[in-house]
Write a structure and sequence with these properties.
380 residues, Neutral Protease, domain 2, 2 domains, five-stranded mixed beta sheet, two-stranded antiparallel ribbon, 13 helices, disordered N terminus
Length: 380
């Protein structure tokens, strides 16, 4: 490789490294904020709360609905969706909802905070869409936070919260709380969530590079907000969906009625929860696709990095092509140039007053050895 090629290669390698770092930083920096419901609060009170000022309560038979001016549209949709949502949740979890849950729909963010604080005694976690209080058979929905076409859609949110009411009753019967990851994962199953291909690709990449948190860590502290919260809900759901493909979800809930967590997993799935977690992660590693990970991780930064890499490859290719052309021209020119220098030597020997330089055809040759007055080329 000639010096020009070597320099070009070093330049290209440095560019690829720089662009790769840019791509990695862009991928790590990218993240979508996902707001999902928090864990049920351990409040205990019989019957629905007293209506707040300005709110009205409708007794709809299977549940009571409390709403205020400004939330009429969401409240009407809750009324329409509730019967099917209840049926779906009860079928998936194999457990009945409380006899008459109470649903509150708030029209604004500030009103959501106020109503929550009124029944729970403290402000809600920030940016949550809805909460369930199983001890009170109560669901509070932030009407202003509903975003259809996402996990924050009204139907999936309602089903998720009703799932918490079902699981809250189960926890009361067994006198022990379920791990938060199990509770939220089961509620996402009850909500009818489906794992998108991009989400599954993220899971496989996290598993391959040992970036999936341990469920024991989630049992100690479960994130509920931002990117970490969205990731925790997705991971918990994905594991429970994987288990549900092996045995029906309601079989596990039946076992949890009378058994400890590990005994229930052992009875239904034939192994401890921790061992099943390792098996699930091993399957994710086997399914990992670097190409899919690259495609689904694209964002502004990574696209810019890819464009820079493409530009670097194009420039390198052009330089290589030019170097090859110059080398070929030099190879063709060498015999002609050698003959031209021979003639120049002959004319100098014959005493010709002006002999043009064969290289540049501009300067004249003089001295010993002959040297061009323009390009400073010395005769070979």
């Amino acid at each position: 490789m000639n010096p020009l090629d070597q320099a070009n290669a070093r330049l290209f390698q440095a560019g690829v490294v720089a662009c790769g770092l840019l791509f990695l930083l862009g991928t790590l920096a990218a993240g979508q904020t996902l707001t999902l419901p928090p864990t049920p609060l351990p409040a205990r009170r019989a019957g629905p709360p007293t209506p707040a000022s300005g709110y009205t309560i409708q007794d709809l038979g299977v549940f009571t609905l409390e709403s205020a001016p400004g939330s009429e549209v969401i409240a009407a949709r809750v009324e329409r969706l509730f019967p099917q949502a209840r049926a779906d949740v009860e079928e998936i979890l194999g457990r009945k909802l409380p006899a008459k849950p109470h649903v509150i729909v708030t029209p604004t963010d500030s009103e959501f905070v106020r109503r929550y604080a009124r029944v729970a005694g403290s402000p809600p976690p920030s940016s949550v869409l809805a909460v369930a209080l199983p001890g009170q058979d109560l669901v509070i929905i932030r009407g202003s936070g509903v975003v259809e076409g996402s996990n924050a859609g009204l139907e999936s949110t309602l089903r998720h919260e009703l799932g918490h009411l079902v699981l809250g009753a189960l926890e009361a019967r067994r006198a022990a709380r379920l791990p938060r990851w199990l509770n939220e994962g089961l509620c996402e199953v009850a909500a009818g969530r489906k794992l998108a291909d991009s989400e599954y690709t993220s899971l496989t990449s996290w598993a391959k590079f040992a970036q999936l948190p341990e469920f024991d860590d989630y049992a100690q502290g479960f994130p509920t907000h931002g990117q970490a919260g969205g990731r925790a809900y997705m991971i918990s759901f994905a594991f429970m969906a994987w288990l549900g493909e092996r045995k029906p979800t309601l079989d596990l809930l039946e076992a949890l009625e009378a058994k400890s967590l590990n005994d229930a997993f052992q009875a239904v799935h034939g192994d401890l929860a921790g061992e099943l977690e390792l098996e699930w992660k091993a399957e994710l590693v086997e399914d990992q696709s670097s190409f899919k990970s690259l495609i689904y991780s694209l964002n502004v930064w990574s696209v810019a990095a890819l464009l820079a890499i493409v530009a670097g490859l194009r420039a390198y290719s052009q330089r290589r092509k030019l170097s090859k052309q110059l080398a070929e021209e030099e190879e063709k020119r060498a015999p002609r140039l050698a003959r031209a220098w021979e003639r120049a030597h002959e004319r100098l020997t014959e005493g010709a007053p002006l002999v043009l330089c064969p290289e540049c055809q501009l300067g004249t040759l003089s001295g010993d050895p002959p040297r061009c007055s323009s390009c400073a080329m010395t005769a070979p």
